[in-house]
Amino acid sequence: MIIKELSLKFYRNYENIDIKFNKNINCFIGNNGQGKTNLLEAILFLSLTKSHRLNEDKKLIMNNKSFSKISSLINDEEDKKLDIIIHQNGKSLSINNYSINKVSDFIGKLNVILFSPDELFLFNDQPKERRKIIDQEISKINQKYLLALNKYKNLIKEKNILLKNKIDENYLDVINDQLIEVDEVIIYERNRIIEIINKNINKIYKLLANEDKNINIKYKSCIDNKNVKEKLKDLYRLSKQKDIDYKVATEGPHREDYLFLMDDIPIVDIASQGQKRMVILAFKLALINYIYQETNKYPVLLLDDVLSELDINHRKALINLLKNNIQCIITTTEDIEIDGNIKKFYVENGTVKEI
Ligand SMILES: Nc1ncnc2c1ncn2[C@@H]1O[C@H](COP(=O)(O)OP(=O)(O)OP(=O)(O)O)[C@@H](O)[C@H]1O
Ligand SMILES: [Mg+2]
Is residue 52 lining ligand 1, measured as CB closer than 6 Å? Predict the structure, then answer.
């Protein structure tokens, strides 16, 4: 899958720009604060219908304007036009000029993987942030998961309201039975993505970092992966009294976590900044394998400000890994020598020029 064209109108500091991308490597060069991340953010918005940097969409609208428009032409077996208009009180989505009402019908039409420097916090963050990343990656390519997850979130809300108020135990059992149905889907897919990532992440890390360390992600599931239904029934039966006592849903997929390990030790405890960066990069590249395995298509890779942080050997290792079949959009503050099929752009104060 590739993005062929992108137009932004009144998006952040872009008043009006049109970009035609190269099908392999695209490099956006510019000083700090010129709009490089804004560009990647707009592409990510096309994929997820939300920004990775803020929750309130209307803040993306250029100051003193009333709307913002992100338009794109992508190619995924055939050309498709994806458009998003962000208004003061919502957003409209369309595919090939047909209006899309259900966000879940839009998410993932363009599939991107983003690496951004903020993600170094992934290891220190709360489990919620790690769950969010994994959930997003599965949801983009798996509607069944997205629907199960949404249903799950609604059921947990309902359960917590029930537990906070006067408890009807029969109703609690009904909710738990419904939870078991969606939990099964969620736990199966979480196991699957981690299994596929673990098959690849080690090899990628070794190539990138050129050191012989074993990288592995441990999915800390609320149950183990055999006889899931039975185990879930037991889990909810055994935790029922605790839920009632604590007045909150104490067990289930909303309490799970993913532990990143280096030679079996949590990365947060031992890895250097540079190693952490390489692990996240390897994780993102392993996600490409996951998406390819599940959909037979490569996502577009967005690398925000990663090259300038890597020394020349690591940079070469990364570019070699990207090969020809992946479209990659890279931002950097300095012009960097890269071999291969590459198009370069210069970004300055909300303008983009091909160089
Ligand atoms: N809603 C908005 N309206 C107008 N300008 C905005 C808006 N939101 C952000 N900006 C501007 O966008 C610019 C920041 O863009 P961006 O984060 O893409 O920079 P960058 O090129 O990635 O910089 P760095 O190299 O420091 O990461 C700032 O100048 C900021 O004032
Ligand atoms: Mg930036």
Answer: no
Q: Is the CB of 12 inside a 6 Å radius of any atom of ligand 1?
A: yes
Which of 9, 10, 12 to mutate for ligand 1's pocket (most ligand atoms within 8 Å of CB)?
A: 12
Write down the domain spans for the chain: 1-111+297-355, 121-295
Whether 1-111+297-355 and 121-295 share one fold: the answer is no
Q: How far is the CA of 304 from the centre of ligand 2 (A)?
A: 7
pLDDT digits (tens, 9 = 90+) for 25-64: 999 999 999 999 999 999 999 999 999 899 899 999 999 9
Q: Is the pLDDT of residue 275 over 70?
A: yes
Q: Which CATH entry fits the domain spanning 1-111+297-355: 3.40.50.150, 1.10.10.10, 3.40.50.300, 1.10.3090.10?
A: 3.40.50.300
Mean of pLDDT values over 273-277: 87
- Pocket flag, ligand 1, residue 37 (CB < 6 Å): yes
Ligand 1 closest atom vs CA 59: 1
Cα-Cα-Cα-Cα dihedral of 121, 126, 127, 132, to 10°? -70
CATH of the domain spanning 121-295, picked from 3.40.50.300, 1.20.1050.90, 3.30.450.20, 3.40.50.720:
1.20.1050.90
Residues 6+ apart with CB under 8 A from 301: 112, 113, 115, 284, 285, 288, 322, 326, 327, 328, 329
Radius of gyration of the chain (CA): 22
Answer yes or no: pTM beyond 0.85.
Answer: yes
Q: Which ranges of 65-142 does DSSP label H, i.e. alpha helix?
A: 127-141
> Is 200 a pocket residue for ligand 1 (Cβ < 6 Å)?
no
Helices 312-322, 273-295: axis angle to 10 degrees equals 0
Model pLDDT for residues 297-345, shown as the tens digit of each residue:
999 999 998 877 777 888 888 887 776 678 999 999 988 777 778 899 9
